[in-house]
Amino acid sequence: MTKKVVNIGGASARGKVVRENEDFRVFEDDTIEYTDVGIDYFGPIFGRVGISIASIKTDDAHRAALEMAVSKNVEEYRARKKEKRASLESKMFLAVMENDDNKEALSIQDKINRRDSFSVIDGDKSSSSDGNDQP
Question: Which of 38, 54, 58, 62 would disulfide-bridge 24, Cβ 3.0–4.6 Å?
């Protein structure tokens, strides 16, 4: 089954396809054509950083838009970490991204493991942190 390719960026499909997946095709002249699946997937990602998917006409522009989206996500994680609202999982992500060694990540993993092993006892019921209540 072939995916419908939609050229919403206005680029002409010239030359051979040099890269293709379910989201888009890239041609020899660096033009890009998104499939319906690609539009549904990348459209909202690019939209979060103020880029219309219709404005992306080349593979280079696609990569630049992805870099902007990743940068925004990392900035948001950093802001949450500074505000002390980040979950342990978010802190783990930042530790892996920002550090050359795994010391901080391993420390956070230890905290996650300890958190997941706790049980809360309420009257006649015991609730574990995984949500499985025991009578």
Answer: 38
Residues 30-84: pLDDT tens digits? Answer: 999 999 999 999 999 999 899 999 999 999 999 999 999 988 888 887 777 666 5
Domain count, the chain: 1
SS3 31: strand
Question: How is residue 89 written in tokens?
Answer: 């999982």
Show the domain range for 59: 1-71
In a domain, 125, yes or no: no
